[in-house]
Amino acid sequence: MSELKSFYGRFSRNRIAFSGLIVLTIIVTGGLLADIIAPADKGRIDLEHSLEAPSLKHPFGTDSFGRDLFSRVTHGSRVSLTVGFVARTISIIIGLVMGLISGFYGGKIDSVIMRLADITFAFPTLLLLVAIMAVVAPGISTLIAVLGVVGWAAIARLVRAQVMTIRKRQYVQAAESSGIGTFSLVFRHILPQCISPVIVVYTMGLGMTIMAESSLSFLGLGVQPPSPSWGRMISDGIIFMRSAWWLTIFPGIILSLTVSSLNLVGDGFRDAFDPKYVYTKEKD
Amino acid sequence: MLKFVTRRVAQLVPILFGVISVTFLIMYIIPGDPVLSLVGERYDDETIGRIREELGLNKPLPIQYVDYIGKVIRLDFGRSFVTGRPVIESIKEYFPRTLLLAFSSMLIAVVAGVIIGAISSLNRFKWLGRALMSFSLVGVSIPVFWLGLLLIYLFAIKLSILPPSGYGNGSLRYLILPAVTLSFASMATVARVSRASFLDIASEDFIRTARAKGLNEFVVFGKHLFRNALIPVITIVGTDFGSYLGGSVLTESIFGWPGLGRHIVQAILKRDFPVIQGAVLFMAVLFMLVNLMVDLSYGFIDPRIRVAGKEE
User: What is the b/e burial string over B23-37, where b = at least 16 CB atoms within 10 angstroms of the residue's CB?
Assistant: First the structure.
């Protein structure tokens, strides 16, 4: 408990990271309460009020169908955050399992898993995502699955390295030589030590995953209309850029705010967990 | 050194096969019959049979796989479903423009990034240093496609000083906006890494020695600090090369830059699978080679790296 307290102390002293957390909380709350703060009737098509500039009634203006952009963006945060969280969780689970196996058993299975990771790394990530999304049936569930599966390699590498160092520690070797089973060795002694770096990588990767989701949706390969997504809103706004700048500007601001606050929070987590922890940049 | 080079190259072979297999598999999972999307509405069974034979789709999967590897090694990526043109020809036509864009962005990213990193390391306790670092954190968080649109809005629509899109036969005016857009995220990373590296090197003994023997600050910074701090930047340029290639898909589409990235997007819209497959494989292999060169250059710079990793 005291560990948690000192973690919180270190984190909250980091003013930049803390402000990131506040912004993030606002965006997540907005997404959760989307139905209350942005009721569905505001998002209805209303051609008489299409392409209206931002006003008190429509803080982000209206789109070409007369829909209130603020409620579209708010509902879009739900989609983006869900895709990001679920996909990232899939990556973490695959990465943890692969990394644990790789680091714990070593040998042949380790080199097979690491070669698989190398192959994933060999592709420029966005390009691999584009190629896969171009051939599978588009939609939120395939998007989540593809983003989740493609993101495993960095985590597996991190966990593997972590497991290999932890295993050399005296207390783990003591536990091992005292004859405890593999199961409790892994789950009681090794896994808990991997948690903090994994949380950091989870948070940092979350921003990148949301960015990848928007990029794919922007290209028309991700979230399909009528589901609202920030990337799609931005690309829909392009043809109106001369007359209705708000259509591209506002979804982009919220998207950038989300990604940057996730990065700031991840940065803060890293420093708070361990001031000496050397940050290895996750491959984009 | 030769041993080090051969070992690194040998390590690459299984990965290369893996990459080829992945691109093969991706195109194999296409839902529906690719031949139907090829012939379109007007087809008869005979034509379909003939095309199947031509593409080798009637053979069993392992044979198709072996055929595919054989072709790829001879740089035969098949023909476009739409135009019938060999994919390698299109790559030859479009890729140099992507390379021009990528290198220009890299230049901007490295020069601007190192300058920002150096300034903020020298001012790390002042507001300027902090502001520059926050800026670089925001820099990696701005989606490249949105940044591009923002720049178009500002410089092409509002100020009308630069063209919004197009290639303009490669003239500089057309290159500026897409190059800056593509460089942004990498510039931010270079700034962070070079700052950390400047601070790291600044606390080394040889810097203290240089100061102690009375060299002026300018020489210490330029000759001793700068050169050594640049080494980590090389790695970033290597790993970020992938983001240039991936980012080119978005940047080129926004700016109507006729490179390979935009060509891929157009191929996706037309469901021209051989083009997607060939172009993606090409870029992945290129990315691998760039990383290999980065690794090897490390070996040249630092002899310790040549022996490290042997026991793995």
Answer: bbebbeeeeeebbee
Residue of B nearest to A214 (CA): B143
Residue B131 has pLDDT above 50, yes or no: yes
Q: Looking at the complex, does the CB of residue A161 fall below 8 Å from at least one CB of chain B?
A: no
Q: What is the spatial distance between Cα B289 and Cα B46, in angstroms, rounded to a whole number?
A: 43
Distance from CA of residue A190 to its chain's centroid? 25
- Residue A278 has what pLDDT? 41
| Nearest-neighbour CA in chain B from A161: distance (Å) | 12
Cα–Cα distance between B55 and A84 in angstroms, integer?
39
- Out of 3.30.70.360, 3.40.50.1170, 1.10.3720.10, 3.40.50.2000, which CATH number does the structure's domain B94-311 have? 1.10.3720.10
Average pLDDT of the residues in B50-78: 81
Percentage of chain B surpassing pLDDT 90?
Answer: 29
Q: Which amino acid is at B221?
A: F
pLDDT digits (tens, 9 = 90+) for B22-43: 988 887 776 666 666 666 656 6
Q: Hey, are the CB atoms on B19 and A242 less than 8 Å from each other? A: no
H helix or E strand, kind and range, residue B195:
helix B172-202
Establish if B136 touches chain A: CB-CB under 8 angstroms. Answer: no
Interatomic CA distance for residues B234 and A84, integer angstroms: 31
d(Cα B4, Cα A253) in Å, to the nearest integer?
48
Domain residue ranges in chain B: 20-73, 94-311
Q: What is the pLDDT of residues B76-121, one digit of tens each?
A: 888 888 888 999 999 999 999 999 999 999 999 999 999 999 888 8
Which positions ≥6 away from A35 have C-beta within 8 Å? none
Q: How would you write B27-88 as a 3-class SS string? A: HHCCCCCHHHHHHCCCCCHHHHHHHHHHHCCCCCHHHHHHHHHHHHHCCCCCECCCCCCEHH
Question: In chain B, which among 93-132 make CB contacts under 8 A with chain A?
Answer: none
pLDDT band at A42 (very low <50, low <70, confident <90, very high): low
The model's pTM is: 0.87
pLDDT exceeds cutoff 80 at B12:
yes
What is the per-residue burial (b if ≥16 Cβ within 10 Å, else e) of B199-209? eebbeeeebee
Average pLDDT of every residue of chain B? 84
Confirm if A121 and A153 have CB atoms less than 8 A apart: yes
- Given a contact cutoff of 8 angstroms between Cβ atoms, the answer to whether A63 and A104 are in contact is no
| Shortest CA gap B217–chain A (Å) | 29
Q: Do B31 and A115 touch (CB under 8 A)?
A: no
CATH code linked to domain A27-44+55-283 = 1.10.3720.10
- Tell me the residue type at B301: I
Whether the upstream peptide bond of residue A226 has omega within 30° of 0, thus cis, is yes
* Cβ within 8 Å of residue A87, ≥6 positions away: A143, A144, A145, A147, A148, A151, A209, A213
H helices within chain A, ranges in order? 2-13, 15-32, 34-37, 69-105, 107-122, 125-135, 140-150, 152-168, 170-177, 182-184, 191-218, 230-237, 246-273
Contact A230, A75 (CB under 8 A): no
